[in-house]
């Protein structure tokens, strides 16, 4: 199993957790939790694959990925905690998922012959659009559009560094790891320090 595969599966599980926690905050039942977890985990990668023209899309016939989504939902269902605690949990699992899927999305795009710019865009799409769709399902304002949230920006910065390092002698595995850590770090730091982009 390659590092890219490990990162992809870890990202699926982490985003499934994020979606399931989100569904719980909106008091959904188990089926609703599975749907939101599924969309959170697969949404961005599905859109990426459709745009690039990968057939079938990444999750078709992937039993491991589906099992990870179900496991994340079941774990959340049996976790009997105060719902208010989930806000912090959602933030950290979402930050981890952003980093994991940004790296995976860029690498998949590059392996399908996209140039650096569009590979970077596909990395941001992979990382953010699953959460965007899940938030819409929950009738919530998506993090992607919230003022004062370095969300896609964190993905873009980490992804840009990843693309730059692809042209050096650094190994792909180390580059993937750096990208994941960088995106997570920027997301968490910007939230704590309330960093934001200027208004339009």
Describe this structure in words.
Helix 1 runs antiparallel to helix 4 and helix 5 packs antiparallel against helix 6. The chain has one domain. With 200 residues, it is mainly α. It is globular and about 50 Å long.
Rg calculated over all Cα atoms? 16 Å
- Mean pLDDT level: 88
Order of helices and strands: HHHHHHH
Q: Number of DSSP strands?
A: 0
Overall helicity: over 70%
In whole angstroms, how far apart are the ends? 45 Å
* Residue fraction in strands: under 5%
Morphology = globular
Q: Biggest β-sheet: count, sense, barrel? A: none
- Number of helical stretches of at least 4 residues: 7
Number of domains: 1
Helix/sheet category: mainly alpha
Residue ranges: pLDDT <50 for 5 or more in a row?
A: none
Oligomer: single chain
Which tags fit this structure?
200 residues; mainly alpha; 7 helices; 73% helix; globular
Summarize the structure.
By secondary structure, this protein is mostly helical. It contains 7 helices and no strands. It has one domain.
Topology of this protein?
Blueprint: H1 3-25, H2 30-52, H3 63-78, H4 86-111, H5 116-137, H6 152-165, H7 172-193
Helix pairs in contact: 1-2, 1-3, 1-4, 2-3, 2-5, 4-5, 4-6, 4-7, 5-6, 6-7
